[in-house]
Amino acid sequence: xxxxxxxxxxxxxxxxxxxxxxxxxxxxxxxxxxxxxxxxxxxxxxxxxxxxxxxxxxxxxxxxxxxxxxxxxxxxxxxxxxxxxxxxxxxxxxxxxxxxxxxxxxxxxxxxxxxxxxxxxxxxx
Length: 125
Hints:
By secondary structure, the protein is mostly helical. It has a domain at 12-42. The protein is built from 4 helices and no strands. The longest helix has 30 residues, at 58-87. The protein is rod-shaped, with a radius of gyration of 37 Å. The termini are far apart.
């Protein structure tokens, strides 16, 4: 920097914003840092390795939106297909076997609870 100094009139809110964000830098150093950063970005310099961008581009945002829509469609397809698969009727033999087991349990409960007058009944239609 040159030793020549000039005065710059700024709105109070902007000076507050500078002071809140400059950390250990002086106001002049902070403003110089910001201007240098903007000029480097505007000149089309390569992105420095290890430096992260804070903002996404419109294309990146659109790409993420499309990926999320694709993912949601996959979830919907999965759950609809899963629901249809579960909703299929079981083979008749499996249903009859289950009914026979439950009726056997009902008979066992009837015979073991005759003395206590407690009764559990299962009705199947």
